């Protein structure tokens, strides 16, 4: 079980059974569903957003847009109302909620097929910066995308791709139901490299 008395400078670690060496900020980052009872300042958020700002993007179009709200604010409540019921059940203690939105068009009006990839780069940069500050982020697909676009008045060519909860590591997992509590404490796992690496055609899977 994770420790429950936390401070800003402590990050609870989960064992990561990596097969090859990786840097600690990647190895130790994970996505909890509980957060410490501690606000995230706008200064901290700006550092996280700045990390995302410097992510790579196709043709440097930077198609990402972030809607954010701090708990207690109107924007936070508006985002919360757009989450599916399952996500609302555990995000109630998240200090920050966000929406990740992409512009699906290039500046000259063509389809930007790389926009989702680029938002992913932004989110990954933000997640690693957040982790270095003791802050966790948990990305969610469970959001009413069309209602969110309408609620925040994005034009037709925009797509709300994800919701994100953020807060300091160290929440009390007793706030979760038994199924989520079990998941919160479950070992980390990922596919092995030979399940997704192809040194040639798809049918000729070869290990490194």
Automatic annotation (TrEMBL):
The keyword rRNA-binding does not apply. It comes from the Bacteria. Keywords: Oxidoreductase. Residues 178-194 have a biased composition (Basic and acidic residues). SUPFAM superfamilies: FMN-dependent nitroreductase-like (SSF55469). Residues 175-196 are annotated as: Disordered. Residues 26-168 form the Nitroreductase domain. Belongs to the nitroreductase family. PANTHER family: NAD(P)H NITROREDUCTASE YDGI-RELATED, NADH DEHYDROGENASE_NAD(P)H NITROREDUCTASE XCC3605-RELATED. This is Nitroreductase family protein. It comes from Nonlabens mediterrranea.
